[in-house]
Amino acid sequence: MHETHTHVTEQIKSLLATGTEEALIDFVDTLHPADIVDLLEELDEAERSTFFHAIPADVAADIVEELEPIDQAELIRLMGAERSSEILREMDSDDAADLIAELPAAKAETLLDLMDIHGEDVRELLQYDEHSSGGIMATEYVSVHSEWTVEQTLSELRRVAPEAETVYYIYVLDDDEQLVGVLSFRDLVVAALDTRIDAIMNTNVLSVPVEADQEDVAQLFKKYRFLALPVVDKENKLTGIITADDILDVFEEEATEDIQKIAGTTPLEHPYFSSSIKELWSSRIVWLLVLFLAASLSGGIMQKFSTAMQTMIELTFFVPLLIDCGGNAGSQASTVVIRGLAVRDIRLRDIWAVMARELVVGLGLGAVMAGIGFLRAWRVGGSSAIGIVVSLAVLAIVVFSTVLGAILPIVATALRVDPAVMSAPLITTIVDAVGLLIYFSIAQLVLQV
Amino acid sequence: MHETHTHVTEQIKSLLATGTEEALIDFVDTLHPADIVDLLEELDEAERSTFFHAIPADVAADIVEELEPIDQAELIRLMGAERSSEILREMDSDDAADLIAELPAAKAETLLDLMDIHGEDVRELLQYDEHSSGGIMATEYVSVHSEWTVEQTLSELRRVAPEAETVYYIYVLDDDEQLVGVLSFRDLVVAALDTRIDAIMNTNVLSVPVEADQEDVAQLFKKYRFLALPVVDKENKLTGIITADDILDVFEEEATEDIQKIAGTTPLEHPYFSSSIKELWSSRIVWLLVLFLAASLSGGIMQKFSTAMQTMIELTFFVPLLIDCGGNAGSQASTVVIRGLAVRDIRLRDIWAVMARELVVGLGLGAVMAGIGFLRAWRVGGSSAIGIVVSLAVLAIVVFSTVLGAILPIVATALRVDPAVMSAPLITTIVDAVGLLIYFSIAQLVLQV
User: Fold this and answer.
1) B164: pLDDT confidence band, cut at 50, 70 and 90?
2) pTM (2 decimals)?
3) Are residues B328 and B213 in the same domain?
4) Residues A118, A167 within the same domain
5) How far apart are CA A226 and CA A209, in angstroms?
6) CA-CA distances (angstroms) from residue A108 to A57, A99, A113, B232?
7) Range of weakest confidence among A137-151, A152-166, A271-285, B334-348
8) CA distance B443 to A25
9) Same-domain check for residues A121 and A148
């Protein structure tokens, strides 16, 4: 169905070198903007510049919308302000705002001025927090007045369809521009042409405020399976629209952030290869340092029991095993709970239920591990006494880590701290120290060292 | 805009007890199916049964589609086969298939037989792997023939609109039922009524085969920002349609699976509270056991160097710190790379670029940590020699763990193993053993113990 990548690249290169502008435009017309993005990598700077000057601005806009922010900025630099603003004018306002937000202030101002009326829309969008509904909405919605007829609405649709983000929902406003209803395309198709809109509109219209958190908005899309959701300001005036494709990005972005936080790194702003070495470094050093200092705790406990270890050096053999055991059991529990909280499977009020379940799961896991731990410690340590010490320690550590790992993220939520901060490395460090304390205490009690 | 939860629950309870069926139906009509799901929790079994017998089957179907699988199965049991099949007939075929796949075979057969012609559609969907496009597609698409006019198409739309999953794309078939084009609603609105469909359809229609992996399909939606995508069989015949709302579920499901694998648990089939204690236990025990056995490696290395430790017990104080350091640095790198692979930011061919970047990042992280490690070991261990040993070990361990953590997931991808298997706990265990070996070797060399 699609021609091969290399073949298409060659064709574009030869059209850029020797073809007419019309031939190039006709060829580009057969390709999807998202595919052209892949081809751009193969062109050199001069070819890329020629390309973006030759094709119509609206086609260029569709392509630029698909680029990564770092490539967009590079392209703006390459094309100059005049051509850039032509293309920006054709972009959806939400995408244009995202692009301009990444540019230096002076450059952004120049472009916004050149964009005229479109620049005003974008300026307004730039005021909102980038993780709020205002930050992800577009201003290209379709709205009609409640006293219009179906026929008037259809002709308005014909007029705005090429510009709008989505024409699948039509929003109905009253005389004060307040949002009073919504129509789906389905409703229009099945109605007679002279029907009044307020006779067929759905008045039970759900909207979100401009300052709503994008993660909450994403959960609304998931729950109600919307294709689009209107955004209103404090006076219930329609100010924008969020579409399902924006929400796909939010879902992926939020999952990536959670995953990175769970591993104890500050979430990266950009994709891996768009992040500088310095950004990669600084996203990781903070937690490493915190955990490094916290690991001193475990060191202190080792120090406290150094006489015991000197008396019976075999005790040290099981330190890595016990540490890993607690860390792993704790991370498993915390990760499952952090994700459960994120997708709203687990709520604050479930804390006791989670604790009870994890206690049982922890006992089940600990019992098996304690059995194996006993056999191994007996064989390596040379006495059943050391076997008993290790297996009791394993049981206690696994139960403690499992319950703590499950509870901490919920406690964090209650304290309005991001549960993902209760990440695997932090829990590992806590249970390391406590685990060693448990282990050596049992050893002193049982072995009298 | 929405009445409070308790208020609505009370109203439904009183309508069930004393109201007429009409009053109940009218009231339910004002609520969104997704909101009714929340209310159902508050009803007892008898009330729930009355409720689902009183409301029209198509409304009931919309509600059942929103339920978790475990609640759907419970409801089917409560309602009996006759009423269940009436409701199933009104459900979208993909949702009906998901529900029936969860039931015992005998029960499923009874229901499928009662569903008549709808049962046949569902039977067909049940053949496909649940993670393939066949497994997530629905059969309720809108298709027209290429020689039809816009007017014929509009009247077909009026006929099928209430049943179809989406009416926003209309698929165009030739005489052999092959998929030859696609029309959007936009195209229809702006065309004259007597225009032939093949004159305005887009022939560059992208489709996916029934056996395509749902994760690949999700990436197509993300790249091309589709609202829906047609699914074809081996002969390019249209067999179903995947809509953007199904893809939201796929995105969340895949992210949850990745997160759980990264923490070393087998992904759970169901949400947290729908999973039994046994399922929670068995999702975690496998990796814990593997890692427990692997931790024996570290134990063996400790044993090998027991004389050194006995001579200088201070060496043991830093074991937890070094172990955590390597584990944390390794998990950070592996998690970032696993996620980068999942969202296609990192590809197989990037292995050398990733290795080079991570080497530099690891050196940067290791240098800082080595500095702090030197000061701490000097103070606690009482000699600058032990400070040198610890700081050299920290540097080597952090660099090694960072590079290994980043590379292993890419190697796994090359070997067609899921990169998320190269999870934090596995990497922790590997770098534990290697880290201890590095540490004690440096210690023997420098301190001559």
Assistant:
1) low
2) 0.76
3) no
4) no
5) 16
6) 19, 9, 9, 46
7) A152-166
8) 69
9) no
User: Alpha carbon of B388 to those of B260, B292, B379: distances in Å?
Assistant: 39, 31, 12
A238-243 and A228-232 beta bridge pairing = antiparallel
B193 touches chain A (CB under 8 A): no
Closest-CA residue of A relative to B354 is: A273
Given a contact cutoff of 8 angstroms between Cβ atoms, the answer to whether A207 and A233 are in contact is no
Domain identity same for B119 and B161: no
Which secondary structure element, helix H or strand E, spans residue B209, and what is its range?
A: strand B208-209
* Phi-psi map region of A264: left, alpha, beta (phi>0 left; psi -120 to 50 alpha): left
Q: Are A273 and B272 in contact (CB under 8 A)?
A: no
Cβ contacts of B26 within 8 Å, gap of 6 or more: none
Which tokens go with A310? 């000197």
Structure-token pair, residue A8: 């298409």
Note the pLDDT tens digit of each residue in B205-227: 889 999 999 988 998 888 888 88
Residues of the domain holding B229: 143-252
- Could you give the CA distance from residue A60 to residue A63 in angstroms, rounded to a whole number? 5
Number of domains comprising chain A: 3
Residue in chain B nearest A428 by alpha carbon: B324
Contacts of A232 in chain B (CB under 8 A): none
A317–B316 C-beta distance less than 8 A = no
* Contact by Cβ (8 Å): B84, B118: no
3-state secondary structure B359-398: HHHHHHHHHHHHHHHHHHHHHHHCCHHHHHHHHHHHHHHH
Q: Which residues pair with A143 in a beta bridge?
A: A171
Per CB-CB distance under 8 Å, the chain A contacts of B252 are 222, 251, 255, 343
The two three-digit tokens of residue A308, written as one number: 């015991």
Residues of B in contact with A259 (CB under 8 A): 255, 258-259, 262, 335, 338-339
Task: Determine what percent of chain A is predicted with pLDDT higher than 90.
Answer: 35
Angle at B359 between CA B353 and CA B365, to 5 degrees: 135
Contact B334, B422 (CB under 8 A): yes
Question: What CATH number has the domain bearing residue B14?
Answer: 1.25.60.10
A407: chain B residues, CB-CB within 8 Å: none
pLDDT digit string (tens) for A288-337?
888 777 778 888 898 899 888 888 888 899 998 898 888 889 988 998 89
Probe site for chain A from B321, B347, B360 (most A CB atoms < 10 A): B321
Q: How many CA atoms lie less than 13 Å away from B249 in the CB half-sphere?
A: 21
A396 and A287 within one domain: yes
Compare A389 and B257 and report the one with higher pLDDT.
Answer: A389
Confidence band for A121, pLDDT divided at 50, 70 and 90:
confident
Q: Which two tokens stand for residue A400?
A: 């403690």
Beta bridge partners of B380: none
**DSSP-derived pairing of the beta strands A179-184 and B238-243:** unpaired
Question: What's the burial of A364, exposed, middle or buried (CB within 10 Å: 0-12/13-18/19+)?
Answer: buried
Which residues 334-353 of B are in CB contact (within 8 Å) with A? 334-340, 343, 345-346, 350, 353
For chain A, positions 240-259, list CB contacts with chain B under 8 A.
Answer: 244-245, 247-249, 251-252, 255-256, 258-259
pLDDT in tens, A390-400: 999 999 999 99
Residue with tokens 């020699």: B385
Burial class (CB in 10 A: 0-12, 13-18, 19+), A333: buried
In a domain, residue A393? The reply is yes
**CA-CA distances (angstroms) from residue B436 to B58, B288, B391, B395, B431?**
65, 21, 13, 13, 8
> Among all chains, which residue has been given the structure tokens 């070198």?
A17
d(CA A63, CA B224): 11
What is the longest distance spanned by two Cα atoms in chain B? 96
Average pLDDT, chain A: 87
